[in-house]
Amino acid sequence: AQSVTQPDIHITVSEGASLELRCNYSYGATPYLFWYVQSPGQGLQLLLKYFSGDTLVQGIKGFEAEFKRSQSSFNLRKPSVHWSDAAEYFCAVAPSGGYQKVTFGIGTKLQVIP
Amino acid sequence: GAVVSQHPSWVICKSGTSVKIECRSLDFQATTMFWYRQFPKQSLMLMATSNEGSKATYEQGVEKDKFLINHASLTLSTLTVTSAHPEDSSFYICSARDPRDLAQYFGPGTRLTVL
Fold first, then answer.
1. Could you say which DSSP state residue B40 is in?
2. Distance (Å, rounded) from C-alpha B49 to C-alpha B73?
3. What angle do CA B53, B31, B28 make, to 5 degrees?
4. In sequence order, what are the beta bridge partners of B36?
5. Helix or strand or coil: residue B86?
6. Which DSSP letter does residue A93 get?
7. Per-residue pLDDT reduced to its tens digit, B50-101
8. Pairwise CA distance, residues B77 & B51, whole Å
9. Are A104 and A4 in contact (CB under 8 A)?
10. What count of CB pairs under 8 Å joins A to B?
11. For residue A81, how many other CB atoms are within 10 A of its CB?
12. pLDDT tens for residues A56-92?
């Protein structure tokens, strides 16, 4: 069965600083990988996804993520954080192709300080 | 990106009543939709997978007679919480898989409070 680990429950960064949110997955083959963001009381918004090809994926809002097969990781990065980026971030994994049952990580709450 | 709506955004009901939540894909047709439940400060828990024109597939531990799912069209799935009790109070989120890119797009969620 697939699983996702987000080792950081809570991260605080200063506005303008760089950000990296960690995500490790467990799956027998190359999965589909996703990052979602959730603001308080809201649904989830897709930031970016990886299916195949270039391992560096560009998403919305200036985010990017890099798939590293050797490390089973899919870390999310942003070079300069804005106060509006404060939210909960979820990494997710699904089997490649066909029926997609997405498994979510526990989430990382990002706090941005002035 | 694809847009998914949910209605209502919040609902308060009395114990013992039933509540219906709608999930719509607004700009694409979704053969598969998903229903999740999210507890405070926790991740999403998949409740069931809704397939258009067939019975929903429920995750282990989810009571299918309590959480009725209907996927009557390619743009609409409904979740009915029957005989709701306070422990059913939660944040319910639906998602729809866009066949154009295979990603799941989420609705804004429904906050259910059972008194």
1. T
2. 14
3. 130
4. B46, B93
5. helix
6. E
7. 888 888 999 999 999 999 999 888 999 999 999 999 999 999 999 998 888 8
8. 9
9. yes
10. 50
11. 20
12. 999 999 999 999 999 999 999 999 999 999 999 999 9
Residue in A62, A70, A72, A84 with CA at minimum distance from that of residue A33: A72
Q: Provide the CB-side half-sphere exposure for B46 (13 A, CA).
A: 21
**Contacts for A97 with CB less than 8 Å, ≥ 6 apart:** none
Give the pLDDT confidence score for residue B2 in this predicted structure.
84
Q: Which two tokens stand for residue A73?
A: 């990781």
DSSP-based three-state secondary structure for B74: coil
Grouping H, G, I as helix, E, B as strand and the rest as coil, residue B17 is: coil
Q: Which residues contact A94 (CB under 8 A, 6 or more apart)?
A: A2, A31, A32, A34, A100, A101, A102, A103
C-alpha B76/C-alpha B30 separation (Å) is 8
Nearest CA-CA distance, residue B11 and chain A, Å: 14
- pLDDT: is A30 or B68 the higher one? B68
B34 inside 8 A of chain A by CB: yes
C-beta of residue B91 within 8 angstroms of C-beta of residue B8: no
CB contact under 8 A, A104 and B42: no
Give me the sign of the Cα torsion angle B22, B27, B29, B33: negative
Suggest the residue from A4, A8, A46, A99 to mutate for an interface test with chain B (most B CBs closer than 10 A).
A46
